[in-house]
Amino acid sequence: MNNFELHNPTKLIFGKGQIQKLKEQLPKKAKILLVYGGGSIKKNGVYDTVKQNLSEYSFVEFGGIEPNPQFDTLMKAVSIVRTEKIDFILAVGGGSVIDGTKFIAAAANFRGNPWDILAKGTTVKSAIPFGTILTLPATGSEMNSFAVISKGNEKLAFGHPILHPQFSILDPKITFSLFDRQLNNGIVDTFVHTTEQYLTSSINTPIQDRFAEGILLTLIEEADKVMKLKDDYDSRANLMLSATMALNGFIGIGVDQDWATHQIGHELTALYGIDHARSLAVILPSLLRIQKETKKDKLVQFASRVWNIPTTDSDTMIEKAIQMTEDFFENLGVPTKLRFYKIPKQDFPKITDAINKHFSGSLGENQDLDKTRILQILEAAY
Q1: What pLDDT is attached to residue 359?
Q2: Fewer CB within 10 Å, N- or C-terminus of the chain?
Q3: Which is it for the CA torsion 84, 72, 111, 156, positive or negative?
């Protein structure tokens, strides 16, 4: 096990009706920026409930944060924070809204060009405090300090410990109004977040492995209920908590982490507009096939413990596990092949060039995914 430090200061408030505890979490006399996305919270009742809880506060609204939040949109919110002297931000939405809020919080006090936070990795030294009300389980952004922001055809990540939400309120009933595409994307996103930290090196991390396997098994067991039972609280609660636990730092302590599936997938989203989770579903199976030798021990463990594949030779077990993972995604309605998105093969060098631009050196937990191997992954994913 590798050395590690773990500090997660986010207060998690989970369960039915917990939005009513919002007022208790807000700093007294704060001037608040209420941030949300395309307006779905005005249809499912969340907006009205939030406004009731804000009735004693001075607040300003900022809506319209997109999926894959755009830098230019977020800078409009930054201007509001500065002009209105906002001292607390409340994000109500899914991962994109929360990611966008992290950037707003960081950029508002930033001296210089805020794009440098993303493009140059300039350190964030202070941030406006914020809390979240999660409406879509997927990214885990509600309990971590990382975000991904887009500008044109670039999609870049950043993070800093001061960007943990002060609190996050999670009510699984909110998910009853989500569309199938949002739900199956959330399941896939959570699954791949887990494998990025689990399907790596075998360095004797049994506690972390069991946590990760528990998340994967829960997703597999609950997926059908989540998709077919539109008002089943228990399955939605299990999905919501799985998404949070997959990326709040707990399963990643002391382990080698990969993240190449995300780094390649981000370019597919930036260049072709493929949903984030769907880009992951395309890349993960092929990446595992190309990297099966370096990941062999963990892939055999994955086959046995997660997919319950009988012990045979390792190659057979690994291929069966990858195939069952592909089938799981496909059965959710999420395609696993690049050809579905009509991306021409002649574009593959453009994709690898974009990856090389944004990530210096090779990818993967062993830093062994160079341009040649990434091209092999894209070919295998076609």
Answers
A1: 87
A2: N
A3: positive
